[in-house]
Amino acid sequence: MDVLHTHAIEGYQGESGYMPPKGGFTSLSDEQVKAAVQYMVEESR
Known about the structure:
Layout: H1 2-10, E1 12-14, E2 17-19, H2 30-44
Antiparallel strand pairs: 1-2
């Protein structure tokens, strides 16, 4: 989860593309981004 949180907050450059920090919504707090990541992980189970 820590890696997912870090990538979501700081952005990520991978082989298949780029995800901007906070998905481009820089007005979101780190806690809001973490909550969104947690929600998506729980829903995917």
